[in-house]
Amino acid sequence: MKRVAVSHIQKGDQLVEDVTTKLGGILFYKGTILQEREIEILTAFLVNNVIVEMEQEEEEVSDEKLSILNNDLTYEYQEVFSFIKKVFLNVHTDHIPLLEVRTKLESLISLIDQYNILSFSPPMKDTKDYYIHKSIKVSMTSYLLAKWCDLPQKDWIQVSISGLLHDIGNTKIDPEILHKSWRLNSEEIQEIKKHTIHGYHILKDVKGINEGVKLAALQHHEKSDGSGYPLGSDKNKIHLYAKIVAVADIFHAMTSNKNYKEKISPYLALEEIQKLSFGKLEPSIVHTFIKKITEFQSGSIVKLNNNMIGEIVFFDQNNPTRPWVNVDGQIINLDQKRDLYIEQYLKKNK
Description:
Layout: E1 2-5, E2 14-15, E3 19-20, E4 26-28, H1 36-44, E5 49-53, H2 63-69, H3 72-90, H4 98-109, H5 130-148, H6 153-165, H7 175-178, H8 186-193, H9 195-203, H10 211-219, H11 240-254, H12 266-276, H13 283-294, E6 300-304, E7 309-314, E8 324-327, E9 330-333, E10 342-348
Helix pairs in contact: 3-4, 5-6, 5-11, 6-10, 9-10, 10-11, 11-12, 12-13
Domain HD-GYP: 109-305
Protein name: HD-GYP domain-containing protein
InterPro entries: HD/PDEase_dom, HD_GYP_dom
């Protein structure tokens, strides 16, 4: 018996208790065997989680992983994931239900205080869902960046929508190319690059989003020095929303598993983004991003790339990705020990 998010139900699982609607009506009775239709109904009625008897015993889950799976943010994230996946699948046969998109996103953003950019890692069952997962994480990170960069509050949710929809143009890319399990050739790369233009055309007539959201879809791969695509625009012509989404997009692309490439450490990703602030990304946004997500790291428990576990005891604000780490009483200065780096943020030491 286990409480699980609706998105984690397996066909054949059996309800241990009745499931009711928000108005108190019985949706399904105790003992119901859940199949695809029942799971779709639970999703449609916005049921977050249920208690089930598992058809098959699952592998034992660590206490830390269980706490991640059971927190409110992950439940809400999975609700947004299921909804946005359907929106993307139907975008060429139906309108974008923007009011519902915004409502779902606002519910997720209401839990933003639970979101740790360095450690949040919702389960991804299928690497073909990579772009959906990345879009949601980019949305959440973009919201925080808009807030941290002191944009007017009215812009925060619009920037978040920009992050959510920035890759919507991928829905017009050949799936065999988009989900290819090895590196793309030059012709396929050029095809992928068209997603920016496709995205702009999908969004350009959508009511309820501002021009910044549409331009973020078009410009999130542009670079400050004019070396990006699709138009080779320089920093003076790139919309602020696109500059914010670009930083979040690169970070989550680097720290997410893809078909052909494994994720890298978030700390190494930050170092790469720092390098890109010289001519490629907006320096002020990069500086704010790195500063904000590392400023409270003293006392954090981390795993190094040699599998040693330690606690961050000091960091230099000028070099926040390479702090001093206490491992079993030995202080390791990662700025001096360049062969070592933080592989994974584990938790904040209480």
